[in-house]
């Protein structure tokens, strides 16, 4: 076990130092072979975590992979020097991986050749177990009575060499994860929810991030201020121009210019260098400085992007919102289909009651979008079988359907 230092201000013991000290970083073929041999000789599940340089580098690449297993200790692998970690993946393939918030790490692990075949997600497990807080520190406090320092969670993990305090933090993120998994599994079993959790974990193995289909620019912060199609075209051109610069320089797009700058330019659509500077400075001095530097350094890029948008034919301008085959926003249901609005209201109330009874968040009982889809366009013949099939087609797990289908059938029959 790691060294535990009592914290007089807390009911939990603070974990500051990994057992056996801070592991060295694996960054050579020889060290990687040693790590793989050690992990192969360990037993039980393997705790896995990854650190990214979000906000600093372009994309979500893993810059450190942490692994811990009983009988083999903790290993910190730098994936940057290696073409991939396929050899390590082969070693870990037969084993269950323990991750916290698996959907955050699976994509960047896959980029370096690592993909779980079976997993246990301690964040999702905490949700199903009914914990009020589901972060790693909160879960460790609840099940193991210890707390971790989190002061290095948002640092630039592309830094080389990695400072010793960061490595200590990274090692601690996985060192207790298997113990947490075992305690959480017992709790889920005692609550009768272990089968639910296993279905959820099995579904996560195939997780892939949702493709934005070229519409990533619509996630620009503050874009609600941009309403006219021509201005939306300017925002789209500016976003793609910034993204190309960021990708070439391997930095986060926000470090070229902030989103607020793109929105300002798209709203005003300046065509000359003198019009680039905003008359409304950002409240954040660092963002304002970054905006000024980015506008000056790439002024031709921004002006060209605005000019392209200004010259686009009307038929090529983007729609105010992306086309969707799904239901409209819930606030519009009452006007567009009063019966559907009544179905939704009834189902929501019943789901809230069910959530309290089984102590599972509503959004984990059934994906809210799935509920809205079935209620907005129900099967032509409403029955437990047809509604169950509708949810199954959307990817809902058996345990979710068993609990939720009767409630939705009742709402559909009450308000046909």
Question: What do these coordinates show?
Answer:
- This protein has 3 domains: about 5-205, 2-Layer Sandwich (Nucleotidyltransferase, domain 5), CATH 3.30.420.10; about 215-315, HRDC domain (DNA polymerase, domain 1); about 330-415, DNA polymerase, domain 1.
- The longest helix has 21 residues, at about 230-250.
- It has 18 helices and 9 strands.
- The chain starts with a strand and ends with a helix.
- The chain has about 425 residues and is α/β, with parallel strands linked by helices.
- Helix 1 (about 30-40) packs parallel to helix 2 (about 85-90) and helix 4 (about 120-130) packs parallel to helix 7.
- The strands form 2 sheets. It has a 6-stranded mixed sheet, sandwiched between helices.
Which helices and strands occur, and which strands form pairs?
Blueprint: E1 3-6, E2 13-17, E3 25-26, H1 29-41, E4 43-52, E5 62-70, E6 73-77, H2 86-92, E7 97-99, H3 102-111, E8 119-121, H4 122-129, H5 136-144, E9 146-148, H6 164-175, H7 177-190, H8 194-204, H9 229-249, H10 259-268, H11 285-297, H12 299-311, H13 333-336, H14 338-358, H15 362-365, H16 368-376, H17 384-393, H18 398-414
Parallel strand pairs: 2-9, 3-6, 4-7, 7-8
Antiparallel strand pairs: 1-2, 4-5, 5-6
Helix pairs in contact: 1-2, 4-7, 5-7, 9-10, 9-12, 14-16, 14-18, 17-18
């Amino acid at each position: 076990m790691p060294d535990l230092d009592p914290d007089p201000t807390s009911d939990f013991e603070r974990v500051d130092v990994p057992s056996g000290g801070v592991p060295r970083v694996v960054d050579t073929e020889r060290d990687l072979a040693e790590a793989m041999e050690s992990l192969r000789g360990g037993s039980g599940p393997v705790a896995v975590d990854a650190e990214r340089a979000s906000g600093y580098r372009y994309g979500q690449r893993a810059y450190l992979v942490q692994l811990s297993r009983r009988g083999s200790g903790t290993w910190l692998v730098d994936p940057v020097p290696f073409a991939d970690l396929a050899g390590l993946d082969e070693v870990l393939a037969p084993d269950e991986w323990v991750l916290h918030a698996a959907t955050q790490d699976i994509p960047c692990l896959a980029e370096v050749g690592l993909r779980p075949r079976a997993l246990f997600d301690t964040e999702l497990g905490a949700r199903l177990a009914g914990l009020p807080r589901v972060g790693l520190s909160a879960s460790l406090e609840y099940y193991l009575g210890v707390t971790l320092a989190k002061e290095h969670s948002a640092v630039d993990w592309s830094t080389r060499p990695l400072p010793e305090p960061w490595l200590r933090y990274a090692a601690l993120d996985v060192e207790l994860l298997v113990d947490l998994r075992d305690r959480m599994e017992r709790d889920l079993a005692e609550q009768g929810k272990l089968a639910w959790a296993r279905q959820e974990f099995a579904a996560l193995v195939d997780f892939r991030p949702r493709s934005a289909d070229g519409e990533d620019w619509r996630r620009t912060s503050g874009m609600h201020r941009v309403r006219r199609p021509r201005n939306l075209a300017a925002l789209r051109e500016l976003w793609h121009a910034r993204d190309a610069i960021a990708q070439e320089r391997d930095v986060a797009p926000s470090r070229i210019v902030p989103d607020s700058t793109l929105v300002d330019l798209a709203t005003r659509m300046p065509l000359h260098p003198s019009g680039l500077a905003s008359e409304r400075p950002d409240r954040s001095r660092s963002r304002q400085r970054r905006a000024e530097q980015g506008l000056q350094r790439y002024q031709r890029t921004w002006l060209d992007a605005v000019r392209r948008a200004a010259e686009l034919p009307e038929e090529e301008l983007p729609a105010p919102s992306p086309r969707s085959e799904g239901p409209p926003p819930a606030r519009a249901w009452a006007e567009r289909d009063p019966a559907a609005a009544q179905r939704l209201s009834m189902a929501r109330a019943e789901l809230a009651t069910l959530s309290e009874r089984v102590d599972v968040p509503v959004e984990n009982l059934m994906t809210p979008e799935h509920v809205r889809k079935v209620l907005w366009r129900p099967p032509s013949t409403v029955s437990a079988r047809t509604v169950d099939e509708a949810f199954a087609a959307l990817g809902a797990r058996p345990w979710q359907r068993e609990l939720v289908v009767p409630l939705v059938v009742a709402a559909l029959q009450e308000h046909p």
